[in-house]
Specification:
361 residues, alpha+beta, Jelly Rolls, 3 domains, 6-stranded antiparallel beta sheet, 4-stranded antiparallel beta sheet, 11 helices, 14 strands, elongated
Length: 361
């Protein structure tokens, strides 16, 4: 779009003011509204131009000027299309799509206008439609096992809403409520699938964003992590990834070098030592919310697993790269204390294993 010089902008604003005064003095003269629209478009004030076009269109229809009203509608549709394209390209994963595809895929897009307090998404609903927030602000509220609501975060303009249910084909995991009057673009599931087929990088970008959001939600539910500042949680969420294990599956073998710090978010694990005669000795049980591998993050402690770590149920871990985790620890005393506490537990387990071996021998 051509950028006006400061002098040209000032002149256009002066003309706009003049036509606004003329419209106030002669409300039946629709051509003054047309001039205002032309100037607003030149000034790239498209939202104002769109509203004025709607007023102009209604005025022309009431006066029986169908052809002129159609021209106003065509201009308004063109502005809507331009605004929509800009909004789509500003969305983190859609900027990778071609303009031709966006025009085809979202030709039947649906704009939604919601007032403060309205629900966009309700917890537990079965719906895979995704949304892009065009204007306004939304609040995300999760629910615990008792059904109590917990505030998660706010969503700003340009963010994608509802992608978790779409990607996982699961019921909605949270309530999404309007904080400020909002406008959203509803994207049908079939259009998103076509987008993924055209450009797999778009799906990967959305999957990465969705994983970070799920990790952040899991961290907020953990007693050790929920006390951390929001910026630290966001950093951890970007680096974390989920990994799943079945019951009685060995997660890490004894003596393996520790390369990640892991948070148990589902299930529980056992620490299993080995005696001199080769028999196994079940030691501590580590439940949901415990960090694994913390001794590697403390300089003076062991950098290897001192026992086998075995999943005793369907277990889910969030893995964080060790080097990254150490950097975050160095900047946050609360995280350091949480890791140190878990590391001391691991160290106690090692001493327990050695002592048990001595007794058994």
């Amino acid at each position: 779009m051509f950028k006006q010089t400061s002098e040209a902008t000032e002149a256009l604003q002066h003309r706009l003011s003049m036509y606004q005064q003329l419209s106030a003095a002669y409300p039946l003269e629709y051509k003054h509204l047309q001039k205002q629209v032309e100037i607003l478009i030149l000034l790239e004030r498209f939202d104002e131009a769109e509203l004025l076009l709607l007023q102009l269109q209604n005025t022309l229809i009431n006066r029986g000027l169908a052809n002129e009203a159609k021209k106003a509608a065509d201009i308004r549709n063109h502005i809507n299309k331009e605004l929509l394209c800009n909004q789509l390209y500003s969305t983190p994963f859609l900027h990778l799509a071609s303009s031709t595809f966006l025009e085809k895929a979202f030709r039947k897009h649906r704009r939604i206008e919601l007032e403060e307090g309205d629900y966009l998404i309700r917890y537990g609903a079965h719906d895979t439609q995704m949304f892009i927030l065009i204007s306004g602000e939304l609040a995300v509220w999760s629910r615990d096992e008792e059904g109590n609501k917990h505030f998660e975060h706010t969503m700003q303009v340009g963010e994608v809403v509802g992608e978790l249910a779409f990607l996982d084909n699961t019921p909605r995991t949270a309530d999404v409520i309007v904080c400020k009057k909002s406008t959203l673009l509803a994207i049908p599931g079939d259009a998103v699938l076509k987008l993924f087929m055209e450009n797999p990088n778009i799906e990967q970008a959305l999957q990465k964003s969705a994983t970070a959001r799920k990790v952040q939600m899991a961290l907020k539910k953990n007693s050790a992590m929920m006390k951390l500042p929001k910026d630290v949680l966001r950093l951890l969420a970007k680096q974390g990834k989920f990994i799943h294990f079945n019951a009685l599956e060995r997660i890490y073998p004894c003596e393996q070098a520790i390369q990640t710090i892991d948070l148990i978010t589902q299930g529980y694990v056992r620490l299993v030592g080995e005696l001199g005669d080769g028999t196994s000795l079940i030691l501590n049980s580590l439940k949901q919310g415990t960090l694994l591998g913390c001794s590697a993050a403390i300089p003076h402690m062991e950098r290897k697993y001192t026992t086998d770590i075995v999943s005793m149920d369907k277990t889910t871990l969030i893995q964080f790269p060790l080097v990254f985790f150490q950097k975050i620890m160095a900047t946050n005393p609360r995280l350091y204390q949480a890791v140190l506490q878990c590391a001391e537990l691991e160290q106690d387990t090692l001493m327990q294993t050695i002592h048990t071996k001595q007794v058994m021998l």
